[in-house]
Design a protein that fits this description.
It is a single chain. Helices cover about 85% and strands about 0% of the residues. It is mostly helical. The chain is built from four helices and no strands. Helix 2 packs across helix 3 and helix 2 packs across helix 4. It starts with a helix and ends in a 10-residue tail after the last helix.
Length: about 140
């Protein structure tokens, strides 16, 4: 009978150890699931941010040619260099709360006598005047 009781106690101890191991394994597994969900959520947020950035960059590339054309027009009209023309576009865009590429489209359209909204035209004149004082005039060609 003592032998059977010892075997029974040993079996109980093994069962308890196995249950504790199983419990620890379950806790570790649960923590891994929680960590994985956090990582997935973080990666989803990063992917969404990259999608937004990609969309913005794509839109910027589409608007780039007209912005470069407008800079050329402003350089010819206002005798500004490339940086000065850029500053005029940005200044007008900010002061009229109009997207830069739309201001650029209006500048380019203005070369074909298409009407430019009066508040944009006035702000362009003011920006040209304001930034003309920042840049020294280019020397005349000889």
């Amino acid at each position: 009978m003592n032998v059977l009781l010892k075997d029974l106690d040993a079996t109980r101890e093994r069962s308890i150890r196995l249950m504790l191991r199983a419990h620890r394994a379950s806790e570790v597994s649960h923590q891994l699931v929680v960590d994985s969900r956090r990582r997935v959520t973080r990666l989803q947020h990063e992917a969404e941010a990259l999608r937004r950035e990609n969309t913005q960059l794509h839109q910027a590339l589409l608007g780039r040619p007209v912005v470069d054309q407008a800079r050329g027009v402003l350089m010819a009209v206002g005798a500004h260099g490339p940086q000065g023309a850029w500053k005029v576009l940005v200044d007008t865009s900010q002061r009229t709360n109009t997207k830069l590429h739309l201001v650029a489209e209006m500048v380019v359209a203005g070369t074909t006598n298409e009407p430019v909204p009066p508040h944009i035209a006035e702000q362009l004149r003011q920006s040209l005047t304001r930034h003309a004082t920042e840049e020294s005039p280019r020397p005349a060609c000889r």
